[in-house]
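Hey, can you fold this one?
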Amino acid sequence: MIGKPLFTTSSPKASKELVMLLVAAFGALSGFYLLVSVVPLYTAGSGGGGFGAGLVTGAMMLSTVVTELAVPRLLARLGYRAVLALGLLLLGVPALALIATPDTALVLAVSLVRGAGLGIVVVVGSALAAELSPARHRGEGLAVYGVVVGVPAVVGLPAGIWLSERFGFTAVFAVAGAVSLVPLAVVSALPSKSGDVTTSGSVFGAFRAAGLARPTVVFTAITVGAGVFATFLPLAVSAEARGTAAFALLVQSLTMSVARFAAGRFGDRHGSGRLLVPSVLVSALGAALLLWADDPVAMVAGMALFGAGFGAAQNVTLALMMERVEAADYGRTSALWNVAYDAGFGIGAVGFGMLAGPFGYGTGFAFTAAVVLAALVPAMLDRRVAKP
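Sure. Predicted structure:
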């Protein structure tokens, strides 16, 4: 039975480093989410139109995924401290450049650079959280990290819109840039190198490693649902019901954070693998309820269940993957998990758009629920294989 909580069982040095990591990640992600919805508005309102708005977001996410694939090699060469500082600079400085002009070419370039910064920060953050958490409390450490980086998504998206409407785009760009750069002050308190020599192998090589492919596939499938609901739920209901859709998405974010932390605590005591199948089932049930998205109760209940399953899956899959590799492989394992997150999110949004156009939102939601439920196969196989 595990007794004392995470921050009292770590060594004083590791505890301090973990706190500094949380501060840096919170600042970086706050700066990122403040502009997620604002930059497309800035582009569309300055002549870029809907195409320009979609282009800058797509470019940013593409850059994020490509950079995530390269981060393990950067870590092997430069170490955690230098690479994280680079990520913060790439997130913060370009945000300030947006003040100069709304020209679509500049905004596109800024989005590419900031996407690279995001890719660096999320990979380094997950890897360091795993390394700095004591083995007996790794699930909890990853859960605390996940909750901390989840808060900016809940607060930053509406805050960015509010700031831009109240004080103008220049103000929100300045705030986002500053918030991303302030954490540079704590980077020196983080470890420079891993306790072991960081492996510089490819991320796809990690996918082929024993025990990593199944959690990756499970997480990607569930994240497809997250991409669908975040992008299309407000569009799938009437204009009068969009307030309810926004509330449902907020409920999803809250249940996701609670479930992620609870899964970490449970995993440290009883094993993370026990929650893999339940997380898929709860996610699939929530996704299935969206077939009745016109019913406010079904919509909110569905998003609450999906958020709970998705949050648990985030912690379970990451904890399982980190358990199955040596510390030297934390970098590329973190990259693999983050690529699964971003790729699944993007595939869900794009695929649903292609399907819902000719067949309707109902068919799209049914297909989404089926994709999430299909993750039950690798989840059950992983449970069976993992048993001694």
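The chain is about 80% helix and 0% strand. Let me know if you want another pass with a different chain boundary.
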